[in-house]
Design brief:
This protein is α+β, with helices and mostly antiparallel strands and 196 residues long. Helix content is 42%, strand content 15%.
Length: 196
C-alpha cells in the first residue's frame, strides 16, 4: 500500500502550468516568456536609434553639400580674380552658369535656387560676409553683380536653400523657413593687376 507522500505526480498540462507558476514566483521566467523580449526592446529603442542614424547621415550630407558649394564658388571666382570674367564681359547669369556647371550632383535646379551677390569692397575688414537672413528666418539678401577692375577687392557670396528631411525629434538643422538650411559660400580676394 502506498502512502500519500509516495503517490506519483500526475503528468500533462497541470504539471506544466504549476511549474510555470513556480518559476514565475521564483523570478525565473520560462523560455516561452523570453521569446518576445527582443521584440519589445527593439520597439522601445529602435525608433530612437533609427532617428539618430538618419540625423547623423543628413548632417553629414549637409556638411558635404556646403563644402561642395564652397569649392565650386572658389573655382569659379578664379575667373574674376584673374580678369577673365572682366575681359569676356561676364554677366551675373554667365557667372552663375560657371558655378552651376561645377555643381552637377546634389544641387537640383541650381539656376533658380542659387543666389549670388558679387560686389567690390574698399577693405577686407569692411567686406560684408554675414548671412542675409531676417528675424523671421527668411532669406532677404541682395543680389548684385560687380566683378570690379584690376587690384580691387571683390567679395563673392553664394547661397542655396537646401531642403531637409529629418526635422523631427529636436534634430532640426533648418535656419530658414520651410525646413531648409541656407548653405553659404563666401570668398574675398583682391583682383590681379590684369592689363585690360
Amino acid at each position: 500500500m502506498q502512502t500519500p507522500s509516495q503517490t506519483p505526480e500526475p503528468t500533462g498540462a497541470p504539471v506544466a502550468r504549476r511549474t510555470g507558476v513556480i518559476r514565475l514566483i521564483r523570478g525565473r521566467p520560462s523560455r516561452h516568456a523570453k521569446r518576445g523580449a527582443a521584440a519589445v526592446e527593439f520597439a522601445l529603442i529602435g525608433p530612437v536609434f533609427l532617428a539618430l542614424i538618419f540625423a547623423i547621415l543628413e548632417t553629414a550630407l549637409v556638411f558635404f553639400a556646403n563644402q561642395y558649394l564652397e569649392t565650386a564658388v572658389n573655382d569659379a571666382s578664379r575667373l574674376i580674380r584673374t580678369g577673365q570674367a572682366h575681359k569676356n564681359g561676364f554677366s551675373s547669369t554667365q557667372f552663375k552658369n560657371e558655378i552651376c556647371g561645377r555643381l552637377v550632383a546634389f544641387f537640383s535646379d541650381c539656376q533658380t535656387k542659387l543666389k549670388l551677390d558679387v560686389r567690390t569692397s574698399a577693405t577686407f575688414t569692411g567686406a560684408d560676409t554675414a548671412k542675409p537672413v531676417d528675424g523671421s528666418g527668411n532669406y532677404n539678401g541682395p543680389q548684385a553683380y560687380d566683378h570690379g577692375t584690376a587690384t580691387q577687392i571683390v567679395v563673392v557670396r553664394a547661397y542655396y536653400e537646401w531642403p531637409l528631411i529629418a526635422t523631427g525629434f529636436g534634430m532640426d538643422l533648418s535656419d530658414v523657413g520651410n525646413s531648409k538650411r541656407l548653405l553659404a559660400a563666401v570668398t574675398a580676394f583682391r583682383n590681379e593687376p590684369f592689363p585690360w
